[in-house]
Design brief:
Length: 143
């Protein structure tokens, strides 16, 4: 019998703070597409904004999918749902600051000299700038 060693998969995390979720939904995600987030997965195929790819969790071919306008992918086999932020955070070994900076860069949101994304505003439940500190670029180490 052949033994299969599973590859690591994105860990399940607690929900993000409401202000960060609002910032992602209103400032970042409207400027991104599935191909920018999931496009490097093996088997990735774009179909008019929807996609199919090999699952990053169970690794079955062609069962991970997402629909245009949604910021998540889901596997038809293992049923895991992975959001854009969670997937990028996983690619950076759980480093939320680098994930935020990467998404901001992909969306064209400028990182200021203080390490904070420019153009942010208060989104309902407080100033999002107080939630995190960002490196100036992805090449700079996190603070």
């Amino acid at each position: 019998m052949r033994h299969h060693t599973p590859k690591p998969s994105p860990p399940r995390r607690n929900k993000l703070p409401a202000a960060l979720t609002a910032w992602l939904n209103h400032t970042i995600y409207p400027h991104l597409t599935h191909v920018q987030i999931f496009g490097q997965l093996p088997g990735y195929t774009d179909r008019d904004g929807d996609f199919y790819a090999d699952c990053p969790v169970c690794h079955r071919p062609g069962v991970f999918y997402g629909f245009k306008g949604r910021h998540v992918g889901q596997c038809k086999s293992c049923m895991r749902i992975i959001g854009w932020f969670g997937f990028v955070r996983f690619r950076y070994d759980g480093d939320e600051d680098r994930a935020i900076a990467s998404l901001a860069e992909l969306a064209g949101v400028t990182i200021g000299p203080d390490g904070q994304p420019l153009g942010l505003e208060t989104l309902g439940d407080g100033d999002i700038l107080g939630l995190f500190t960002l490196p100036l670029s992805l090449d700079d180490p996190p603070p």
